[in-house]
Amino acid sequence: MQKFRRVFEGIAKAGQSTDLNDFYTELFITERVSGEVNKEHEVRLIETASRKPAKEETPIKLEDIFKPLPGQDQPSRTIMTTGVAGIGKTILTHKFTLDWAEGKANQDIHFTLPFTFRELNLLKEKEFSLMELLHHFFIQTKGILRYDLFQVVFILDGLDECRLPLNFQNNPIWTDVTKSTSVDVLLTNLIRGDLLPSARIWITTRPASANQIPAKCVGMVTEGPDVAAVSYPGFAAVKEGSDADGLVDTDLRAEMEVLVLKDPTPESPKSS
After folding, report:
1. How far apart are CA 211 and CA 37, in angstroms?
2. Among 57, 185, 232, 238, which residue's Cβ finds the most Cβ atoms within 10 Å?
3. Does the pLDDT at position 168 exceed 80?
4. Nearest-angstrom CA–CA distance, 272 and 268
């Protein structure tokens, strides 16, 4: 769990990590009513959100993401959380995993299995069974023979970084967890529920990549912390003084922006 406890974000100095529990502030996820994906550039999404009036939303606590919403009998099997770069989607998944591992939340879940698409990309040309894929990433699971007997959560972080085809339309149906195939076939069948249907899936992505997963395969779409919340003081001054269209293209660039804006910025000259 050290991988999820120590992070190079938040209050850490350059080159140093910090304990996630030391700086994490509880953030609420909100369910998105509309299935429409906003493909507008992320900087413009931040600017637009900062101008929007407050709207009535139903917040979802991180520890409740796999629990039924009010009026629901069953929780959603597959959840997608969208948000611009640097908003904290990966931190949400790390905090969820850490709280589960430390016994603080979701103790009805037997296994939380976090993957990143960046790691899965490296296996694009290889074949595994689902069991072999789990053993490849989590050697401690080698003694588990029947995952259908347990409550399992798969976290698939960073869909926007996926370089696999995710061919939901043409990939064959795959239901045998012991039979080898491509990682792409495993993922598409896992997400659409043909492979290990008892599992729950949490996918994170930037908004423009969300449509790589068919809407019928996603039970609930949520948004990370409101993008207006990361319109840090001084953002407008940075925008006025430079071409910021690519400023938050990566989490690293977004983190750099936060570090810069923590220092006082000179007041922008007011136009008459």
Report:
1. 7
2. 185
3. yes
4. 12
pLDDT at site 60: 86
Q: Are 1 and 98 in contact (CB under 8 A)?
A: yes
pLDDT band at 266 (very low <50, low <70, confident <90, very high): very low
Residue pair 152/193 in contact by the 8 Å Cβ criterion? no
The amino acid occupying position 213 is I
Q: How many residues does the chain have?
A: 272
Residue 88 pLDDT: 83
Residue 270: inside a domain = no
| Secondary structure class of 30 (helix, strand, coil) | strand
Residue-range definition of the domain harbouring residue 66: 2-261
**Residue 177 domain-assigned (yes or no):** yes
Please tell me the distance from the alpha carbon of residue 187 to that of residue 167, in angstroms, as a whole number: 10
Rounded to 10 degrees, what is the CA torsion of 258, 259, 261, 264?
A: 150
Q: In this structure, is residue 110 part of a structural domain?
A: yes
pLDDT at 204: 97
Which CATH number characterizes residue 180's domain?
3.40.50.300
Token readout for 87 is: 């908003």
DSSP 269: P
Q: Are 226 and 86 in contact (CB under 8 A)?
A: no
195 Cβ contact partners less than 8 Å away, ≥ 6 residues apart: 130, 174, 175, 177, 186, 189
pTM of the model: 0.72
